[in-house]
Amino acid sequence: MREVSIIGIGITKFGELWEKSLRQLGLETGLAAISDAGITSKDIDALYIGNMAAGSTLQQEHVSALMADYCGLASQNIPATRVEAASASGGLAVRQAYMAIAGGFIDIAVVGGAEKMTDVSDSESSYTVSMGSDEQWESKAGATFASLHAMIAQSHMTEYGTTREELSAVSEKNHFHASMNQMAQFPFQISAEAVSNSGMVSSPLRMLDCAPNSDGAAAIVLCATEKAKKYKKKSIKIIGSGQASDTLSLHHRKYLNQMPAIKMAARRAFKSCGKKASDLDLIEIHDNFTISEIIALEEIGVFKRGKAAQNILKGETRLGGKIPINTSGGLKARGHAPGATGIAQVVEVVQQLRGEAGERQVKNAKIGMVENHGGTAATAVVHILEGE
Amino acid sequence: MNGIVSYGAYVPSHKIETGEIASVWGADGSAWAKNLNVYSKSVPGPDEDVITISVEATRQAMKRANLNGDFIGAIYTGSESHPYAVKPTSTIVAEAIGATPNLTAADFEFACKAGTAAIQTCLGMVGDKQIDNGIAIGVDTSQGAPGDALEYSASAGGGALIIGSKKVIAQINHTTSYTTDTPDFWRREGQKYPRHGGRFTGKPAFFKHVVSCGMMMMQKAGTEAKDYDYVVTHQPNGKFPIRAAKTLGFTNEQFETGLLTPRIGNTYSGAVFLGLAAILDIAKPGDRILAVAYGSGAGSDAFDITVTDEIAKMDRSETVENLISRMKIINYATYAKYRGKLNMGASK
Amino acid sequence: MSVPRFWRELDTRYNLIGSYCKITKTYHYPRRSFNPEAGRESIGSMEDYQFKGSGEIVSSTVVHQAQTGYEMFGPYCMAIIELDEGPRITTQIVDCDPEIVKPGMKVKSVFRKLGEDSESGILHYGTKFIVIEYNEVEESEENIPDIEV
Q1: Is A335 part of a structural domain of the chain?
Q2: Which of A142, A201, A205 sits opposite C78 (nearest CB)?
Q3: Residues belonging to chain C with any Cβ–Cβ distance to chain B shorter than 8 Å
């Protein structure tokens, strides 16, 4: 198996991008990543696209060919593949490209993620997000995506005594990080009190516990490490990759307050590189809801079960703390454009490991993790990245 | 003798008080309540309709008699508010009680007496030995136009009767009908709310048919009012049934058990079924019941019924009274939302 | 939802028909032809089973931003319940103040409208749950009459 490196990154600002179409978003980030990598289109062997919902939001499937075409790669008849695993689509697209290069099938792949959530009404975009759950036995029964996470939160609060204050600390911290990220949808701070007093969405989760449904795109260029130096002086190695799945419906899980797919994906990623949680300098976590960040940290093993929330409240996951989490602002404050999210997370960790994160730079960051999941963590994808 | 093998009832768990409705229209609530003798009416939830109420009532009837769907040869549902204009309520009920596919089914419409017409149909089929048991259902989720007098009474609920020849808890000794063309109340195809003839719905319509039919029934059965322990008639409000019962010679003790409209409103096709269910909840072997339905348009069906020893063996712990006592008051805003009275614009 | 997509699962939704695995002696809902725990051996050993419809609340939430099609209920209670036979279901809890629903409460099934395709489309019916006898439990203590000696 060959080693794989990330040699280029590109990202758009996340948010309500009224002027931009899905294809424009994809093109912008693709070009940015290619130019950052110092490659030309002739060097690209394959394209992987993470996209969750173009079929339901834009009535457009076949997004792989669409993106290849609009990125000017159609004339090369490039292999283009769309990957879908709800909000884990982006992370999973990265993993597909990683495996193709590691396996020796190709040398260079562009992995792009794009999502356009604001071309439909709020209720349609919310329903689209809930399609990552079991549409027949959860969504159609009246469960919103937030309500499923609310039951996860309720169960976690009952079992471990997790508090409102601790949930709010997650959003407060992520907004603090986003205030230093100009690509974030909400680049400003909010107080924990504001989170605690925001409108109830599905008890106990409030408006500011929930990530937005954003437009956005991100792209990276992966290259066989042995050939990376030819294009980029400073590349970031993917040293670990893991993926796992779980029951699609939350109600079929033994414990509502756990997300075993994240645990297994992390364990597999750790195993593939011989690292452990304490080796990590930072993590981008899939905080679609505040409770998800808390549970993911417990599943990855950063904190013992039931202990993550109090450590977040103590500031251990804040920039300057023991292990900064979601320096980008996370899904909550950077924004959440499902297919793009997993790739935007990689972009953030690459910037950190390159030492190019500016104000929000984690000092001496060497090893970072990306955790991206779909639905109520029925798919989880974890990557471990190492700087030079 | 053929008759009622089992019975079931259902009333939604929400109710609105007459005064609350009156306050919206600036009307005198206590005067309306007193004039109509209706103090509150049941309101179905957003997820309740004639089909769900029919299923709940029928399931209760099946459970009480410990019957499964294989025993059922026919289902007829009478209603003026079937959710579908075309597509039967009865097939959904059949599926939901596991009676498919070996049965016949159809929906009936005859304003408020469609359900009792279903009883007569089942009686005929059982008597002719075409089926062992048939189910007659009378349910409505009727609507009155906002501000119309009907709005104070039009409510939701109903019941189901299993009609058969074995293990009969109440035998139906006789039935008779009285039918004319009397346009006192109607709803045109495609219209949301019914229209009515105001005071014309009284003397030439309700009273003429109910009283005539009741008298014909007693003549046919060779009975007088004093031979009955209970009487139940259709009850579009709380006053008409009392006046009709008194005209026929009945007393308070005989009609009060089956008179539910003052507390749950007019359940249309469900009214006689619910009143009869309330009587069967407490009836003793040997009790005799006169039931007279009325449907606008117009007609009455009457039944002369005698309760048998079988009723003593039946589990009657789930009562109509339990259903009524669990009802919780909602305000007009919630009622308007639940009943689709809000104009949602053209967003969908 | 298209007509056949709903129609093919009518009995599952109307009558809580699931599966019983003769190998592991476990119950499953909705119907499965294969028991994930027993693997391939379970094929052919799964029998239809009609659940009794009673169970209890495992977790619940009050939904203030309603799911599409549930706007008229808001706020409403969604819960994960565990049927007496074992399987869990995500369901709306109706006919009560959504705030009173708590884990451990007993529930039973009721037949309700689940939704509709559109104003002119097919209606969907199925099973929801209600909390049983919470009123009686709550009120029984208060309602004990004062006995004058």
Answers
A1: yes
A2: A142
A3: 10-11, 14-15, 72-73, 92, 94-95, 110-114, 118-119, 123, 125, 128, 135
Looking at the fold, whether A249 and A344 belong to one and the same domain comes out as: yes
Mark whether A150 and A247 lie in a shared domain. yes
Contact C61 A199 (CB under 8 A): no
CATH of the domain at A267: 3.40.47.10
Q: What is the pLDDT of residues B211-255, one digit of tens each?
A: 999 999 999 999 999 999 999 999 999 999 999 999 999 999 999
Q: Would strands B230-233 and B288-295 be described as parallel, antiparallel, or unpaired?
A: parallel
Q: Could you say which DSSP state residue C71 is in?
A: G
Same domain, A113 and A193: no
Q: State the best of A121, A151, A206, A248 to mutate against chain C, taking most chain C CBs within 10 Å.
A: A151
Full residue range of the structural domain in which residue A161 is found:
132-212+239-386
Rounded Cα–Cα distance for residues A357 and B299 (Å): 84
Tens of pLDDT, residue by residue over B52-102, are 999 999 999 999 999 999 999 999 999 999 999 999 999 999 999 999 999
Contact state of C135 with B98 under an 8 Å Cβ cutoff? no
How far apart are alpha carbons C76 and B91 in whole angstroms? 30
Residue B30 burial class via C-beta count within 10 angstroms: exposed 0-12, middle 13-18, buried 19 and up:
exposed
Class at the top of the CATH hierarchy for domain C52-141: mainly beta
Test B48 with C14 for CB contact under 8 angstroms. Answer: no
Q: How far apart are alpha carbons B118 and C96 in whole angstroms?
A: 34
Q: Which tens digit of pLDDT belongs to each residue from B276-312? A: 999 999 999 999 999 999 999 999 999 999 999 999 9
Looking at residue A280, the DSSP 8-state letter turns out to be -
Give start-end residues of each CATH 3.40.47.10 domain in chain B.
3-169+321-338, 170-311
Closest Cβ–Cβ partner in C10, C15, C72 for B46: C72
CATH architecture of B170-311: 3-Layer(aba) Sandwich (3.40)
Q: Report the catalytic residues of B.
A: 80, 112, 234
Q: Which residues of C touch A252 (CB under 8 A)?
A: 88
Superfamily of domain B3-169+321-338: Thiolase/Chalcone synthase (3.40.47.10)
State ipTM.
0.94
Give which of A128, A139, A154, A210 to mutate to test C binding, by max C Cβ within 10 Å. A154
Q: What's this model's pTM, rounded to 2 decimal places? A: 0.94
The minimal CB distance from C111 to the residues B13, B55, B340 is found for B55
N-to-C CA span, chain B: 55
Contact at CB, C62 and A144, closer than 8 angstroms: no
Alpha helices in A280-337 (DSSP H): 290-300, 308-314, 330-333
